[in-house]
Design a protein that fits this description.
ARM-type_fold, single chain, PUM-HD, mainly alpha, Leucine-rich Repeat Variant
Length: about 375
C-alpha cells in the first residue's frame, strides 16, 4: 500500500511520506517487508531522498550485503545512484575488505554481480584482481562461478584475458564441475570467437569422456548447438575413431551422438551406408538376458539402442535387421510376441523407418545373437 501510494504521489506528497517513514528506515532495511519500501524510495524518490538514504546505509554496506533482505536494498542503491557515481564508488569501497566473503555468500554474491551490471569495470579493478587471484577457488564455487560469468559478460578484453587464460588451465575439471561447467557453457555461447575456438578444440579432443559425465555433458551439448559444421564434422570423426562396442555405456552414447550429427549435417550417402553397416554388425553382437540381475537397466538400454539404430538406418538396412531378428526369435524363443510398425519418422527424412516394439510374455528368456 505504501509503495503504491508513494509511486503515484506528487513531489509534495512524496516528501511528506518520506519524512514519516525515514526515522524507521534503519530497521526497515532488514525487514522482510519493509525492505521493499526502502527500495521503492530509491526507485521513485527524489534525488535528495536518494542521497539521504545513502547516508543511512553508509558504514553498514558490508553487513547489509550479507543480509537476506539488506542485500536487496544495497543492489537497488547501486542501481538507482547512477547519477551519483561518487556514491556508487563509496559503496564499493566499503566492500573492498570483504570481497571474497561477499562473492562466496548466498546474498553477497548478488551485490557483487550488480556492481558489474551497473558500474564501469574500470572502477571495479579491486574486485577483478581479487577474482583473478582466487580464480580456481571461485570457478568451482556455486556463487563464485556466477560472479565470473558477470565479469566475462560486462568487462572488456583487457580485464578478461587473464581470466580466460586461468580458466583454460583447468578446463576439463571445470567442465566436469557442478558449477564450473556453467562458466564454460557461457563462453561457448557468448564468449569471443578466439576463446570459444580454443575451448572447442579441447572439448572435441575429449568429447566422449566429457559427454559421459553428468555435468560435462551439458558442455558438449552446448558445443554442438553453438558451433559450425566444421566442428560438428570433427566431433563425428572423433566418435568414429574412438568407437567402442565392448563398453555398453560408451557404445550407446556414441550411437546417440552419431544419430544427432547425421541429422544436423549434410553427410554423403556413402558415409551413411558405412555407419549403417557398422551399427548393424555391432547390433547383432548384443544380447538381452532377463535372468541378469540388471535386466531392467539392460533391457531399457537395448530398447533405446534399437530405436536409435532404426532412426538412422535406410529401409533396406531395416528389413535386413528385421529378418535377422525374426530368425533369431524363431530359433531361440517360444511364446514371444513381436510387433513391427512401419512409420514415417521426421519430415526431413525421405525413406520409411521401422520401429520395433517387443512384448515379453514369459520369464527367463534369453536372446542371443
Amino acid at each position: 500500500m505504501i509503495q503504491k501510494q508513494f509511486e503515484n504521489s506528487t513531489i509534495e506528497q512524496k516528501i511528506f511520506i518520506f519524512a514519516k517513514i525515514y526515522p524507521e528506515a534503519s530497521s526497515l532495511v532488514k525487514d522482510q517487508f519493509g525492505n521493499y519500501v526502502i527500495q521503492k524510495f530509491f526507485e521513485k524518490g527524489t534525488n535528495e531522498q536518494k542521497v539521504q538514504l545513502y547516508q543511512l546505509l553508509k558504514g553498514q554496506v558490508q553487513d547489509l550485503s550479507l543480509h537476506t533482505y539488506g542485500c536487496r536494498v544495497i543492489q537497488k542503491a547501486l542501481e538507482e545512484l547512477k547519477d551519483y557515481p561518487i556514491l556508487q564508488e563509496a559503496i564499493i569501497q566499503e566492500l573492498n575488505d570483504t570481497i571474497m566473503d561477499c562473492i562466496q555468500d548466498q546474498h553477497g554474491n548478488h551485490v557483487i554481480q550488480k556492481c558489474f551490471e551497473v558500474i564501469n569495470c574500470s572502477k571495479l579493478q579491486v574486485i577483478i584482481r581479487e577474482v583473478i587471484t582466487n580464480i580456481r577457488q571461485l570457478a568451482f564455487h556455486p556463487y563464485g562461478c556466477r560472479v565470473i560469468q558477470r565479469i566475462l559478460e560486462f568487462c572488456k578484453t583487457k580485464e578478461t584475458d587473464l581470466i580466460y587464460k586461468k580458466l583454460m588451465e583447468n578446463l576439463i575439471d571445470l567442465c566436469k564441475c557442478q558449477y564450473g561447467n556453467y562458466i564454460i557453457q557461457y563462453i561457448i555461447e557468448k564468449g569471443n570467437n578466439e576463446n570459444k575456438q580454443n575451448i572447442l578444440k579441447v572439448i572435441k579432443q575429449y568429447f566422449v569422456s566429457l559427454s559421459l559425465n553428468k555435468f560435462a555433458s551439458n558442455v558438449t551439448e552446448k558445443s554442438i548447438l553453438y558451433s559450425d559444421d566444421k566442428y560438428k564434422h570433427g566431433v563425428l570423426e572423433v566418435l568414429l575413431s574412438q568407437y567402442c562396442v565392448d563398453n555398453q555405456e560408451y557404445f550407446l552414447f556414441q550411437i546417440q551422438f552419431i544419430l544427432y550429427l547425421i541429422q544436423v549435417l549434410e553427410l554423403s550417402n556413402q558415409l551413411k551406408m558405412l555407419l549403417e553397416i557398422m551399427l548393424f554388425k555391432d547390433f547383432m553382437k548384443r544380447r538381452i538376458s532377463i535372468q541378469s540381475q540388471n535386466y531392467v537397466n539392460t533391457y531399457c538400454k537395448r530398447k533405446i539402442f534399437i530405436k536409435i539404430l532404426f532412426q538412422i538406418a535406410t529401409e533396406n538396412m531395416c528389413q535386413l535387421i528385421l529378418k535377422k531378428i525374426e530368425l533369431t526369435i524363431q530359433d531361440k524363443i517360444s511364446n514371444f510376441q513381436f510387433k513391427i510398425n512401419k512409420v514415417i519418422i521426421r519430415k526431413n527424412i525421405e525413406f520409411q523407418k521401422v520401429q520395433i516394439h517387443t512384448f515379453l510374455c514369459i520369464n527367463k528368456i534369453c536372446l542371443y545373437d
